[in-house]
Amino acid sequence: MADVLVVSELTEEGKVRKTTHSAIALARQALGALGGSLSILVIGSNAKAAAEELRGFGAAKVLVCEDPSLANYTAEHYA
Q: Lowest CB count within 10 Å: 6, 36, 42, 47, which one?
């Protein structure tokens, strides 16, 4: 049994990117064979709004890290 964490990608406007939806679909498919649970991590300056959208995708947990300094992606802030 394995757990999977999907790190979401957001647009500059704080919307969930299609790549996140694809990653969730792949994770759910893998978990069907492996067992375990799905968690989604949402990082950004408007992460709470995006997290609400992602709560309907069947994740056991939706983790949120929201801070104004995360508005523009830089490796230092996301590390």
A: 36
